[in-house]
Amino acid sequence: AQKITQTQPGMFVQEKEAVTLDCTYDTSDPSYGLFWYKQPSSGEMIFLIYQGSYDQQNATEGRYSLNFQKARKSANLVISASQLGDSAMYFCAMREGGSEKLVFGKGTKLTVNP
Amino acid sequence: EPEVTQTPSHQVTQMGQEVILRCVPISNHLYFYWYRQILGQKVEFLVSFYNNEISEKSEIFDDQFSVERPDGSNFTLKIRSTKLEDSAMYFCASSVTPRDQGYTFGSGTRLTVV
Predict the structure, then answer these.
(1) pLDDT tens for residues B29-44?
(2) Which residues of A touch B102 (CB under 8 A)?
(3) How far is it, in rounded angstroms, from Cα B50 to Cα B62?
(4) Chain B residues contacting A, CB < 8 Å?
(5) In degrees rounded to 5, what are phi and psi of residue B84?
């Protein structure tokens, strides 16, 4: 069974608009962490935002926010005021409490149109 | 800002040859990781390393793979006898602790086996 599911292979958004990238996860561990990474065409992996399973508030980092709905096991990334430079692959990942590894989803390719 | 450095950025090798991928993690980080990403696919965990020992590994990390921290700064991944299916982007990452939300990835080494 997939641990991380990203159902949107590709998304398009107009510059300056907000966009939500979906991520659902599957775990029975009460302690886990959720991550979003950005991978531009140059290939590097850039950390964006983190949400811990016990965090009471949704994480925010500048234009990035994480819509964490624990009961639904979803951790959607919201990018506000999209910029052309936001065009990239976006990966959701999870680390379960007893493990050191990150498990990644298949990614969503975001294209920001001018 | 501290970064994880990987060399080379691109390596081409003949099938059956040994290859060593090199990484310099962030200096105060204690946990080191290798991940790989086959072209167009998701990022997959290979191995984690702490205190000069492998602490966790995936089923991908078989006897053909080994890791080493030969000195105080480098962290290497060796593939003994490369196969065509080893062609991928290999990412090194490091963190202060495995519970650290700040996994930092390097820019990757693109390995092409011909």
Answers:
(1) 999 999 999 988 889 9
(2) 47, 50
(3) 18
(4) 31, 33, 35, 41-45, 48, 50, 55-56, 58, 89, 91, 93, 98-99, 101-108, 110
(5) -55, -35
- What separation in angstroms does the CA of B12 have from each of A55, A104, B80, B91, B105? 44, 26, 15, 16, 22
CA–centroid distance for B105 within its chain: 10
Taking only the tens place, the pLDDT of each residue in B73-106 is 899 999 999 999 999 999 999 998 776 677 899 9
CB-CB under 8 Å, A95 with B104: no
- In angstroms, the CA B31 to CA B55 distance is 9
Nearest one of B77, B57, B83, B79 to B7, comparing CA atoms? B77
Diameter over CA atoms, chain B: 38
